[in-house]
Amino acid sequence: MPSTTRRAIITTAESLIQQTGKADVTLSQIATALGMTHAALYKHFRNKQALWEAVATRWFQREILDALPIYTSGSTHEQLHTWLWALVNAKKRTYQNNPQMFALNTQYLDNNPAALRRVLQPAYQNVDILLAYHDAHYERAEAVIAAFAIFMLPTFKETWLDDDYQDRFERTWQLIEPGL
After folding, report:
1. Homologous superfamily of domain range 47-179
2. What was the pLDDT predicted at 2?
3. How far is 111 from 153, CA to CA, in rounded Å?
4. Where are the alpha helices (DSSP H) in 37-162?
C-alpha cells in the first residue's frame, strides 16, 4: 500500500501541475486532492525536495528516456550518434511542449547535480553497453553524454531553437567520435 500511495502522490502532483499550468503547486494542494493531510505526505517523502525530485524523475524517465528507441542498424558509432540525436531532441521537445514540467525538471533535477546524475544512470548504462566499456560506474559513458550538455541543460535552452542546432550537434559529434 505505501508504494501505491507514493505513486498516487506523484501522479497527483504531476496532474495538478498540468491542470494549473504552473510548476509551483503546493503540498497542501496535493494533499487536498488526495483527501489526506499535508503531514501525511511526509510518511512517503522525507521532505518537499524528495517529493518534487520523485515527480521530476518519473516525468524525465517517461518523457525522455523511455521515449528513446533502441537502434540496432549501422555501426556502433552510428547507433550511438542516432541515439544521442534522439536524446537531445527529446529534451528539446519537452522544453517546447511541456514548459511546466520542464521548469520543475530544471529546478529539481538539472539544478541538482547529484539528482541529475541519478536520473541519467539508465542513459549512462545504455551508452556503456552499446560501446562495450564495461565500466562499473559508467565513467566513460557519462563523459560521452556530458559532451552534449549544451543540448540538454536548461541554461542553453534558448539556443536549441537556433538554425545551426543540428550543425552544432554534428560538430560536437565529430570532436568526440575519434575518442570513443
Report:
1. Tetracycline Repressor, domain 2 (1.10.357.10)
2. 64
3. 9
4. 48-60, 76-97, 99-105, 113-119, 121-130, 139-146
CA dist 129 and 14 (Å) reads: 32
Nearest CA among 37, 84, 46 for reference residue 65: 84
16, 29 Cβ separation under 8 angstroms: yes
Which tens digits make up the pLDDT trace of 24-72? 899 999 999 999 998 999 999 999 899 999 999 999 999 999 999 988 9
71-114 pLDDT per residue, tens = 899 999 999 999 999 999 999 999 999 999 999 999 999 999 99
Q: What is the CATH number of domain 1-45?
A: 1.10.10
Nearest to 147 by CA among 116, 114, 111, 175: 175
> Is residue 105 a contact partner of residue 64, using CB atoms and an 8 Å limit?
no
Please list the residue range(s) of the chain that carry CATH number 1.10.10: 1-45
Burial of 121 (0-12, 13-18, 19+ CB in 10 A): middle
Which are the contacts of 154, defined by CB distance < 8 A and separation ≥ 6? Answer: 95, 102, 105, 106, 110
For 120-147, what is the mean pLDDT? 97
